[in-house]
């Protein structure tokens, strides 16, 4: 009978002795369940704490500790093993320890057979709750087993990195504590190198410190946005790499401040001029559009306008009522056009003119950042890279910060 139960539940540990006279059907967690009893005992070879060999009865028995282990279900009923584990006392160091078994991990109550069953079901198209019902464990246990297994089988080479890396962040899953997760990819092949749970400096430093010096020193360029910790991280771990700013993020920062300026002015006139408020609210996309995409020759009827007009005239009408919005609009689109046209000289001239214009506080803050990381360059190089990995079919101009060492 003992051999039959061991074979049935695949309890391949010779140190476990099953009680052949005990097999009860007990109501547990609202279900009829099968309960078995067993004992785990053996003679330890040495103390795991002090390492002394077990000679002359230096290690003696010191009672038992029972654990309820979850077994694989049998006959449609959940099954459990009440395993009494032998406790030992080391006379040399005075410390105690418990007998260990191969059927379950230390400090765990889910047997490895159940975990294997969970992983087998996880490879199929099913949900965690269904797996939990089939194996009579909680969905949290299923999720934990999947994550532990994924970490165990994950193998990443620490001896090689792509020569051209791109850093970015994204909103991850709810289980991630950080607001944003970090993603790293090969700029040229667009293959994801890895994903890190958060983008904090200490987490990224711990991650990149695993790679060999040779692998890190072979990286030639790193494409990033204006997130300053990325720059310090790149300088520390990739000293031979040139830092690259992606203009997509520059234009995105400009448009963000332009839209905030529109919203500020829109709220100011909400109760003073409701018609203008409604127009500002409805046609916000036109304000963000590049000037070259606006129509100025054909006239049509547009909602909220009592006359025939076109998209360029609508924008001119919306921005003419506020000097801050008007100057902010002009500055944002002039800088954006210079970036898209890869006109570095024009970009510098526009940036210099911004000091005398009536701009929003948010845009002035963004321009200060631009001056910090772009204007002080000794050399400016233009490269066209199709950043499909992060920005989806967007041909971007990349500004290599050759003089980054002067900024930090």
What low-confidence regions span 5 or more consecutive residues with pLDDT below 50?
375-408
Order of helices and strands: HEEEEEHHHEEEHHEHEHHHHHHHEHE
Form type: elongated
| Largest sheet: number of strands, sense, barrel closure | 7 strands, mixed
- Work out the radius of gyration: 33 Å
N- to C-terminal distance: 74 Å
Q: Look at the structure and give the mean pLDDT.
A: 82
Proportion in β-strands: 15-25%
Fraction of residues in helices? 25-40%
- Going by helix content, strand content and strand pairing, the class is alpha+beta
Spatial arrangement of strands, main beta sheet: 8-7-6-9-10-12-11
Number of helices: 15
Count of β-strands: 12
Pfam families: DDE_Tnp_ISL3 (PF01610)
Transmembrane segments: 373-404
Keywords: Membrane, Transmembrane, Transmembrane helix
InterPro entries: Transpos_ISL3, Transposase_DDE
How would you describe what is shown here?
The chain has 408 residues and is of the alpha+beta class. Among the domains are: 2-109, no CATH class; 111-155; 248-375. 38% of the residues lie in helices and 23% in strands. The protein has 15 helices and 12 strands. Strands 8-7-6-9-10-12-11 form a 7-stranded mixed beta sheet. Helix 2 packs antiparallel against helix 3 (128-135), helix 2 packs across helix 4 (139-153) and helix 12 (323-340) packs antiparallel against helix 13 (344-353). The longest helix has 22 residues, at 247-268. The chain is elongated. The model is unreliable at 375-408 (pLDDT under 50).
